[in-house]
Amino acid sequence: MKLKDRNALITGASQGLGKAIAEQFIREGANVLICAREKKALFATRDELEKLAARGQQVLATPCDVSSEGEVAAMTELALKEFRFVHVLVNNAGIYGPMGPTESVSWKEWPRSIEINLYGVLLPTRALIPHFKKAGAGKVIILSGGGATNPLPNISSYAAAKAAVVRVMETLAEELKPFRVDVNAVAPGALNTRFLDEVLAGGKETVGEAFYAKALKQKESGGVPLEKGARLCVYLASSQSDGITGKLISAQWDPWNKLHEHKEELAQSDIYALRRIVPEDRGKKWNDQ
Q1: Active site residues per annotation
Q2: Which of 58, 126, 138, 232 would disulfide-bridge 181, Cβ 3.0–4.6 Å?
């Protein structure tokens, strides 16, 4: 088992991709602490996950709003108390936030989306960094999304936050490299989760005709299986990926199960990174005057 005896904290794990990640981690031998804001769904998921666990394997749950510094501190304290060591942090919690033209959506909801999608990644990570540094090892996995690499008209707060968390990931990867802490982001693909249902409920008038049509097609096709993103998270949480850091990796399109074979090349390149494209990258020579 790839994660035997490893302890993981997984945020936003009461449903959808977070739940699928927790399931895969347990199947691979990890002890897990899951969190979410909604208590009833959270504890129901914990009960389901416990049925997958082997004897002696821990499955814990605690309610937490990851945008609250106090609640994150309490969750981290619980994880360290119960596990003594936390080897892996999976930052999965997120929301789509307000949908519609940027100038007309609720301003109260717009920064709230930033708080959950961006601060909700940074706060748990900050809380565990001292622990990882002291241990001289650690894994931080951040769930990114389509908003990181492409514009998302009418879902601007989500897009802004997802681009921001990738740059935070790249920055933390550099900061923590001397301590052997790997920090990476995962693009899980177009998933049929509550996010998709929210887009369809919003309608073409809210999210735009093209995005609505794309979502409708995704609903009919089934989308990318949750297990793909979950298995990539297992790989990044395992010792097999040690030294791979600072990368945004697609669960759907990238050959992630063999990335350790290209570790040195990855470390010396901007492959799987967010970078500015200049004319020369596209065969243009605009600077020749």
Answers
A1: 158
A2: 138
- Could you tell me the CA-to-CA distances from 160 to 1, 32, 166, 247, 260 in Å, in that order? 37, 30, 10, 18, 30
Three-class secondary structure of residue 209 per DSSP:
helix
At 117-165, the pLDDT tens digits run 999 999 999 999 999 999 999 999 999 977 788 888 999 999 999 999 9
Residues 221, 225, 229, 234, Cα dihedral to 10°: -170
Tens of pLDDT, residue by residue over 43-86, are 999 999 999 999 999 999 999 999 999 999 999 999 999 999 99
Residue 287 burial by Cβ neighbours in a 10 Å radius (0-12, 13-18, 19+): exposed
Q: Is the dihedral of CA 74, 76, 77, 78 positive or negative?
A: positive
Domain boundaries, the chain: 7-189+225-274, 190-223
Please state which CATH class domain 7-189+225-274 belongs to. alpha beta
